[in-house]
């Protein structure tokens, strides 16, 4: 029998568990350990609430979780309730699937002013993550600046710009919907250091901005290279640039009350304000021969009560585990970190790829585990972890408990919504009795 512990219950964790099932059959026991009482990681707290079709992949993870040889061990904090070293003593393999939940720091003056938040915090706020439910972002307006040119920046801009009716069918949490309903923001500026050809936005997400009820995307046509240069782009990138060219060709609609401005060749250099964010000072950039953005010395100010930094994520380091500071992930050799210790997903490769990218990643790690541990070493595994956690008074949440929490969230949903998420751990734990 092989005993495997997976730390983190997001896509990387569940795909790894599924891969271990297929690799070892009945001769494996996989425990998926998570700090929160609820599973699915970024499917629950990272995917935008108005992208419900993406969240449907959780049904695949549920099918894995309900098998006999995979178990969810929720409400267990690794490092506090149990250490990595203890897990390595109990299991043949320990897999770090912790994702990259920390914001890459915005290292400019004024980044610590009230009103400046990272995308992990802002996305966690509107998705009901317990760590960020009390964020209360500054929506008194009239301006918001979103720093970044990727899909997360698009999500933030879209959420800030939608009408309440456009959230029908989503699982945006009530506290976020209430604040957004009263928002005074009428201009959302997306800052990108480089130009339209260098964006990291995918066509589907970018195209959504062109169909919003009260908001219109605005792009300066002079920011584009000649149209024939679009042929040099990859197909997906070319489709995204086509959307941007379409936005640039539209007349500004005075009936639309919210503007989403794409400000290309724009680098934030500092954030100013009296005790809180009031404006972002931006330097105009130009591309050098290598395609890098360099400052031109020309600066200007953009009014902003809210600044959301969407410049990337980092995996939180764990004491004693080799860590790559530059890449913001665990140091590893194709997933191997230390003997018996592995990393998968964003914890292995950094915050790149889609949800589906984690599936082949999980199978690759399962193959390495199989090569390394053979038939297993007779370690105690699941029963020993249970005894250890019980001795420490840890209130473990099982997958059956999670199903009770999920049923309570579904029952509490507003009309048309799939659920109303609990936003505190205490609420989640209390819902097990309903």
The neighbouring-strand order within the major sheet is 3-2-1-4-19-18
CATH architecture call of the largest domain: 3-Layer(bba) Sandwich
Low-confidence stretches: none
Strand content: 15-25%
Structural class estimated from helices and strands: alpha/beta
Q: What's the end-to-end separation, in Å?
A: 36 Å
The value of Rg in angstroms is 23 Å
Please report the number of helical segments: 15
- Give the tally of structural domains: 2
Tag the structure with descriptive keywords:
FAD/NAD(P)-binding domain; six-stranded mixed sheet; 19 strands; 2 domains; six-stranded parallel sheet
Q: Which SSEs are present, and which pair or pack?
A:
Blueprint: E1 2-7, H1 11-24, E2 28-33, H2 42-45, H3 52-55, H4 58-65, E3 70-73, H5 84-90, E4 93-96, E5 102-103, E6 116-118, H6 119-127, E7 143-147, H7 151-161, H8 174-181, E8 187-191, H9 203-208, E9 215-219, H10 235-248, E10 258-263, E11 266-272, E12 279-287, E13 293-303, E14 306-309, E15 313-314, E16 323-324, E17 329-330, E18 336-338, E19 341-343, H11 346-349, H12 358-373, H13 382-391, H14 399-411, H15 425-430
Parallel strand pairs: 1-2, 1-4, 2-3, 4-19, 6-14, 7-8, 7-14, 8-10, 9-10
Antiparallel strand pairs: 5-15, 11-12, 12-13, 16-17, 18-19
Helix pairs in contact: 1-4, 1-12
């Amino acid at each position: 029998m092989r005993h495997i512990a997976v730390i983190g219950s997001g896509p990387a964790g569940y795909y790894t568990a599924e891969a271990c099932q297929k690799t070892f059959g009945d001769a494996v026991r996989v425990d998926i350990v998570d700090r929160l009482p609820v599973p699915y990681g970024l499917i629950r707290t990272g995917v935008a609430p108005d992208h419900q079709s993406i969240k449907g992949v959780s049904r695949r993870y549920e099918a894995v979780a309900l098998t006999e040889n995979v178990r969810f061990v929720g409400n267990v904090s690794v490092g506090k309730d149990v250490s990595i070293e203890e897990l390595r003593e109990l299991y043949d393999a320990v897999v770090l699937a912790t994702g990259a939940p920390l914001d890459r720091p915005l290292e400019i003056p004024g980044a610590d002013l009230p009103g400046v938040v990272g995308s992990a915090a802002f996305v966690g706020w509107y998705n009901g993550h317990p760590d960020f439910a009390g964020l209360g972002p500054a929506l008194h307006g009239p301006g918001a600046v979103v720093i970044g040119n990727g899909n997360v920046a698009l999500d933030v801009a879209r959420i800030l710009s939608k009408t309440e009716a456009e959230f029908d069918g989503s699982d945006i949490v009530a506290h976020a919907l209430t604040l957004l309903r009263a928002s005074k923001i009428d201009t959302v500026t997306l800052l990108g250091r480089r130009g339209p050809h260098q964006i990291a936005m995918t066509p589907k997400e970018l195209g959504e901005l062109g169909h919003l009820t009260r908001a219109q995307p605005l792009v300066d046509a002079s920011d584009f290279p000649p149209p024939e240069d679009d042929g040099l782009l990859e197909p997906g990138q070319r489709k995204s640039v086509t959307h941007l060219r379409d936005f640039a060709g539209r007349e500004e609609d005075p009936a639309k009350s919210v503007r989403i401005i794409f400000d290309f060749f724009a680098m934030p250099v500092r954030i100013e304000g009296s005790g809180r964010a009031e404006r972002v000072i931006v330097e105009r950039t130009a591309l050098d021969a290598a395609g890098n953005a360099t400052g031109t010395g020309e600066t200007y100010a953009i009014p902003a009560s809210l600044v959301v930094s969407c410049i990337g994520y980092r995996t939180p380091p764990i004491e004693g585990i080799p860590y790559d500071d530059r890449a913001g992930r665990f140091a590893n050799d194709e997933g191997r970190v230390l003997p018996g210790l592995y990393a998968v997903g964003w914890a292995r490769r950094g915050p790149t790829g889609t949800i589906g990218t984690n599936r082949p990643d999980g199978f690759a790690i399962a193959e390495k585990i199989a090569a390394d541990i053979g038939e297993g070493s007779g370690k105690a595994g699941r029963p020993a972890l249970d005894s250890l956690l019980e001795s420490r008074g840890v209130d473990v949440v099982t997958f059956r408990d999670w199903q009770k929490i999920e049923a309570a969230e579904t029952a509490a949903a507003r009309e048309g919504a799939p659920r109303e998420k609990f936003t505190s751990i205490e609420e989640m734990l209390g819902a097990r009795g309903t």
